[in-house]
UniProtKB/TrEMBL annotation:
EC number, as in UniProt: 2.1.2.3, 3.5.4.10
InterPro entries: MGS-like_dom, MGS-like_dom_sf, PurH-like
Domain MGS-like residue range list: 3-147
Keywords, comma-separated and alphabetical: Hydrolase, Multifunctional enzyme, Purine biosynthesis, Transferase
GO molecular function: IMP cyclohydrolase activity; phosphoribosylaminoimidazolecarboxamide formyltransferase activity
Pfam families from the UniProt entry: MGS
GO CC annotation terms, alphabetical: cytosol
Classification via SUPFAM superfamilies: Methylglyoxal synthase-like
GO biological process, alphabetically ordered: 'de novo' IMP biosynthetic process
Presence of keyword Transferase: yes
Source organism phylogeny: Bacteria, Pseudomonadati, Pseudomonadota, Alphaproteobacteria, PS1 clade
Name of this protein: Bifunctional phosphoribosylaminoimidazolecarboxamide formyltransferase/inosine monophosphate cyclohydrolase
SMART domains: MGS
Length: 147
């Protein structure tokens, strides 16, 4: 387990509730942290004048299946899960052109809010987040390297 603070050079931001995200991302950009983001979040940050890479640049794949598949890719999860001091992990990252992700900023789709508001079955189903929880678990598993 790593006990020292690590520098952050790349942050992946994927939020459903965008309240305050421009202010937060602006602070990150002010520290020369590269911003990588998903669809709507990338659009919000870009419209605010921030330089942001779409996550599809990391994965080589566009959002697909009506946005159901955005971050479920080794380019994202490898970047979150790779142990920085592990030579085998580093070799795999180099071989597959996986870039490390040092910080993850995520909030989940508003399933409970959608349900409480009386959303129909299909709307509720579409608000079951898959990628967000998977990224949170990956970052938590590698908490020594990912903020």
């Amino acid at each position: 387990m790593v006990n020292s603070l690590r520098p952050v050079s790349r942050a992946l931001i994927s939020v459903s509730d965008k309240d305050g995200i421009v202010t937060f991302a602006t602070a990150l950009a002010g520290k020369n942290i590269e911003l990588v983001s998903t669809g709507g979040t990338a659009e919000t940050l870009s419209k605010a004048g921030l330089t942001v890479r779409d996550v599809s640049e990391l994965t080589g794949y566009p959002d697909m299946m009506d946005g159901r598949v955005k971050t479920l890719h080794p380019g994202v999860h490898g970047g979150l899960l790779a142990i920085r001091e592990n030579e085998t992990h580093q070799a795999a990252m180099a071989e597959h052109n996986i870039q490390p992700i040092d910080m993850l900023v995520v909030n989940l789709y508003p399933f409970e809010k959608t349900l409480a508001a009386g959303g129909d079955f299909d709307k509720c189903i579409e608000n079951i987040d898959i990628g967000g929880p998977a990224m949170i678990r990956a970052a938590a598993k590698n908490h020594g390297d990912v903020a």
